[in-house]
Each structure stands twice: as C-alpha cells, then as structure tokens.
Amino acid sequence: MADPSDRPAYGFGTRAIHAASTPAPVDQIPQSIPIYQSATFSASDSAELGDILSDRERGFAYARIDNPTAHAMATVVAGLEGAEAGFAMGSGMAAIHGAVVSLVSAGDRIVSTNAVYGSTRNLFTHVLARFGVTTTFVDPTDHAAVEAALAAGARVLYLETISNPTIVVADLPALVELAHRHGTLVVVDNTFASPYLFRPLDHGADLVIESATKWLGGHSDVIAGVVSGRQELIDGVRALETDIGAIVAPFSAFLVLRGIQTLHVRMDRHSQSALTMARFLEGQDAVRAVYYPGLASHPQALVAQRLLRAGGGMLAFDLGDRRAASAFLDALRLPPRTASLGAVQTMAVHPPSTTHRQFSDAELAEAGIPPGLVRVSVGLEDAEDLIADVAAGLAAARSAVPA
Ligand SMILES: Cc1ncc(COP(=O)(O)O)c(C=O)c1O
Fold first, then answer.
1. CATH number of 62-260
2. 317: enclosing H helix or E strand
3. Helices in 182-300 by DSSP H: which ranges?
4. Relative to the CA of 116, which ligand 1 atom is closest?
5. What pTM, to 2 d.p., does this model score?
6. N or C terminus: which one in the chain shows less Cβ crowding within 10 Å?
7. Ligand 1 atom nearest residue 223's Cα
C-alpha cells in the first residue's frame, strides 16, 4: 500500500491510522532480531490469509498462533538443542503444560521423577488428574522402580536433567532406553543444565523443555519457556497452542534471544563459582551434605562427568533443620529474598517453604528433600564475595541451633 499519509483524499484519522501501521522497507539487515509488536500480519490476498491460518502455507497471520520474534527464539533454541523444531512459550510452566498435554489423553499415565519443580508436581497431581491423566512418581536413580512403573503402561516418562531441588543427575541414556523399550515417550525439563551443558535430544529424548526465564534469559528480566524436538511433535504442540494461546510475547522473546548470546560464557563462570562454593561448603561443620554434580562426592558424579559439560550453577546443601536454613538465608547480604534461579545475581532459597511448598511432608520425604535444605543458584558476582557471604550465613546457622 502506498504511504497513506501522502494521500490528501483521506481524512486525518485514516491517514494517521494507516500511515502509523505501515512499516518502512528496510534493505539492510538489523543486527538484533526485531520485536515484531504486532497482533496481526496482512497477507497479499484473502486466499493467502486462509492458507496461512490453515497451515497450508508458511507465514504469520495472528500473533497468538505464531509471531516472527517468537519464531526466531524457538528456531535459535531448537538449533542449540539439536532439534528439528521448537515452539516458544510465555513461561517454563506453559512449555511443560504444552509439551505434556500435546501427548496425553484421558486414561493415560505419566511416570515422573519424585523430585521435580513444585508447580510441575502440582500440574500433574492436581490439574491433569482432573482430566483423567494419572502420574506415578519414582526415584530416577532406581532404574528397577522406573522400569516397574513403565511396565504398568505409561505414555510419558517425565524427567529433569538435574532435579530441582535435590540436584540428582538423571542417567538419561539409560532411562531413555528403558522408556522406549516400553513404548513410552521421554520429555525432559533441561532448565537446570541448559543446552550448553547438556542436550537431552542427543541421548534420545523426544521433547526437551527449557524455562527460558532461567539460564537462557539469564538476567531475571523475563518469563518465557520453549519446547524443542522432532517436527511432528512440535507440530502437535503448536496445534495445541493455537487454541490455548500460551505463545511467548515478542518483547520476552527478544530478551531471551539477547540472553542466549552470552549463555556459554555465563555458564562457564556460573559453573566455576558454584564449584568453588560447593568445595567451601563441603569443609564446613554446619553442613551435613552438599549436592553439586561437579563434586567427586556427588552420588551421580560419574553420570555427571559422562553427560554434563560442567557442573552448572545450581547447588544444594543440608543444614540439618529449618531454623538453621532460615538463619542462614536471613544472614546473607548478597542474594535477594527471592525464589528463582538462573540469573546473574546469586539466589538462595529454602525449597520446602518456597519452590516446593506444594509438596506435602510425605512427598518432601519421598523426594529426598530434607527440612534444612538450601538451594543456591550461583551468580556472576566475585566468588570471594559470595564465599564471605556464605561464611557469614553459616555462622548465623550455627548460632541458631544450640550444639
Ligand atoms: C526446573 C524448573 N522447570 C520449570 C520451571 C518453571 O519455569 P517458569 O517460572 O518460567 O514458568 C521452573 C521454575 O522455577 C523450574 O525450576
């Protein structure tokens, strides 16, 4: 359409509306992916519009179904995961919901690991159960228990590469082999690792999820998620999301794309500082156990060495009881009182009262989450400053609990 502001025959309102919504052509290539902040996209004619909306032709018509910035984010993440395709969503939970619901129907069963993110457990036990989908929770390191659960018939085996909050490392190749032998699809939440440290699809997983809110975005300024996998499975997610509408917003996708460009540099430094902190914690009398995949003492140290590029930024440790954990957290000066992870700032939480508050006491015990557990997402601050802060926290934890 010619620039309507040039057409004096149109009234002021018509010219203002149409001129202000007609992008000028750009011949040069922008060096960051533009934020396509548009709800709709116009086709060249009405037949083409119908073809795009019906998926007979590739293109964009309505931003709830797909939009170019979301598409760019999905394509970039899928490439980094080694996937054929991806679909970018408004949150990690939207991605988990989209991935799982695209695969299950009433009467199906999910086998999930017992220590999973609290909202994931809630989604499975309280939401999907209302639609006739049941979930059995198992210890992912007990392969006989996983096999027994799969033998009873399951549509999906749902795993976290590194479990939240217990830092259990799943032996993914072995678990995928078990699942596929029973005709079960494997969906992996890779949020704690990120595709830089581990690529579940390389080991046979069917779908991989990232909460892009965490390491991919990396700066605590965006909520987003993404599912990647084979084209046919992603087509299923996309078809579902056409009617659910949980696609990522363009500005959020832009922030994730910007974050991804430094993911490799950040993850190396997060891993280095987390290892330093884990080694420091291991030598402290107030600490009963430290869980970090890069430590030789980690129960799955060999699995971690075989599968992960580095230990990552997440660690957890047991201070024995809840009073000690609270005293530790309240004495910290650097981590804010916030419950997230995967950012430039260090964040520390008491999972039973925050990220895993949805778990009953019995579920916490079954998932191996002790009452004194502290989970730390190690940021990019100077490691010496973090260690000094942790030392002050431990002193407070010691005085909170009489010897
Ligand atoms: C392992 C894991 N997966 C998924 C999520 C959900 O991500 P979001 O908050 O982006 O919905 C979280 C959130 O903390 C998480 O820790």
1. 3.40.640.10
2. strand 314-318
3. 194-197, 231-244, 250-260, 263-282
4. 1
5. 0.96
6. C
7. 10
Q: What is the pLDDT of residues 259-282, one digit of tens each?
A: 999 999 999 999 999 999 999 999
**pLDDT of 119 over the 60 cut:** yes
Query: How far is the centre of ligand 1, averaged over its atoms, from the C-alpha of 42 (Å)?
Result: 35
| 36 has catalytic annotation | no
Domain boundaries, the chain: 62-260, 263-400
The superfamily (CATH) of domain 263-400 is Aspartate Aminotransferase, domain 1 (3.90.1150.10)
Per residue in 29-45, pLDDT (tens digit) is 999 999 999 999 999 99
Query: For residue 227, what are the CA distances in angstroms to 190, 231, 337?
Result: 10, 11, 30
Which of 36, 117, 291, 292 is flagged as catalytic? 117
Residue nearest to atom 8 of ligand 1 (CA): 92
319: DSSP letter: -
Q: Provide CB contacts within 8 A for 27, sequence distance 6+.
A: none
- pLDDT above 60: residue 179: yes
Q: Which long-range contacts (CB under 8 A, 24 or more apart) does 48-56 make?
A: none
Average pLDDT value for the chain: 96
Q: What share of the chain is helix, strand, coil (3-state, %, to 5)?
A: 45, 15, 45
